[in-house]
Design brief:
The protein is mostly helical. A two-stranded antiparallel sheet has the order 1-6. A two-stranded parallel ribbon has the order 2-5. Helix 2 crosses helix 6, helix 7 packs across helix 9 and helix 8 crosses helix 9. The structure holds heme C (2 copies).
Length: about 260
């Protein structure tokens, strides 16, 4: 069963404007300097490690999880995301700028180091994200944003190992280490323990919606939770600063780590 964001009580209470999903074309950009910045930002997101080796600590690229270069609806698209920032986020306990959100994915999903928020690399990525929100009112929700969220189920890692062997290993490798076809799912070259993907509900919803890459939506919700539980109980890099997450409380049940008391 899928709990779509539009059906949530929260979405109804806040009654934010909602816009259709539309991918703008870079040909729409008239100014050549703006276009060059946006195109360079997009190149970083597609070839993150080659572009910024000092900031990436694993074998993923930004588009490993934000599929089709962040242009696919229901696969955590970047289309419309810029318009939702600045945004209060419970994990940081403060109002985050989009630069903060980008650096969260650098430090956690990419197991790497934050970009200088005032530097050219961040400027170009933010320019591309702003462009992907062209025409979207500030604060608006975009159809197809985030992921279709599954209702939580209890996963069984032993059953998940079976799903992995049958359905995932042909691309991600028999020990999850990645191959030329797909990036690592665990081990030292994968996302770290502080990443959103390290949470079972997020991973299960992602896997159910978009994996296997060539034939999505063939797993049942239970199989998605089983394989997500298997993947996320394998070893992966730590993220020591995770103890300071959710400083004002509100830690979700599937964030399976200790945090300091509200501070
Ligand atoms: C391991 C998977 C993974 C990788 C790799 C990754 N992200 Fe993310 N990203 C996520 C998850 C999970 C979320 C939260 C999505 C949600 O809850 O709807 C997210 C959210 C975001 C958001 C906010 C989107 C929104 O709709 O509010 C931005 C912006 C973002 N990521 C940028 C990046 C950038 C830039 C990179 C590369 C430096 C990157 N991500 C790499 C998993 C990943
Ligand atoms: C046909 C090959 C293929 C199969 C089979 C497949 N994947 Fe993937 N998967 C990919 C590719 C390719 C990407 C990265 C997409 C990109 O870089 O554009 C990916 C990305 C991912 C990611 C996010 C990035 C990372 O490495 O953590 C997860 C999680 C994931 N797959 C899980 C699974 C699971 C679980 C299964 C089995 C149910 C599965 N995949 C089956 C090709 C595949």
């Amino acid at each position: 069963m899928i709990a779509r964001p539009e059906s949530s009580a929260f979405a109804q209470q806040t009654a934010k404007p909602r816009v259709p999903f539309r991918v703008p074309s870079v040909d729409e950009i008239k100014d050549s300097t703006y276009r060059a910045a946006a195109v360079r930002g997009r190149a970083i997101l597609l070839a993150t490690r080659d572009s910024l080796p000092r900031n990436v600590g694993n074998s993923l690229r930004c588009a490993s999880c934000h599929l089709d270069g962040g242009l696919r609806r229901d696969a955590m698209p970047w289309v419309g995301a810029f318009a939702r920032f600045p945004q209060y986020r419970a994990r940081s306990g403060k109002v985050d700028l989009i630069e903060d959100r980008i650096n969260d994915c650098f430090r956690r999903s990419m197991n790497g180091r934050a970009l200088d928020p005032a530097g050219k690399d961040m400027r170009d990525i933010v320019t591309y994200f702003a462009f992907l929100s062209s025409g979207t009112p500030v604060g608006a929700e975009t159809e197809g944003q985030g992921l279709p969220r599954l209702e939580p189920l209890t996963g069984d890692p032993a059953r998940g190992a079976g799903v992995f062997a049958v359905t995932c290993s042909r691309c991600h490798g028999v020990s999850g280490q990645g191959t030329a076809l797909a990036p690592p799912l665990w081990g030292p070259r994968s996302y770290n323990l502080g990443a959103g993907m390290a949470r079972i509900n997020t991973a299960a919803s992602f896997i159910h919606a978009v994996m296997p890459f060539d034939r999505a939506l063939q797993l049942t919700a239970q199989q998605a939770f089983d394989v997500a539980t298997y993947v996320n109980t394998r070893p992966r890099p730590d993220f020591a600063a995770k103890v300071r997450d959710w400083p004002r409380g509100g830690k979700p049940d599937d964030a399976d780590y200790h945090v300091l008391p509200t501070h």
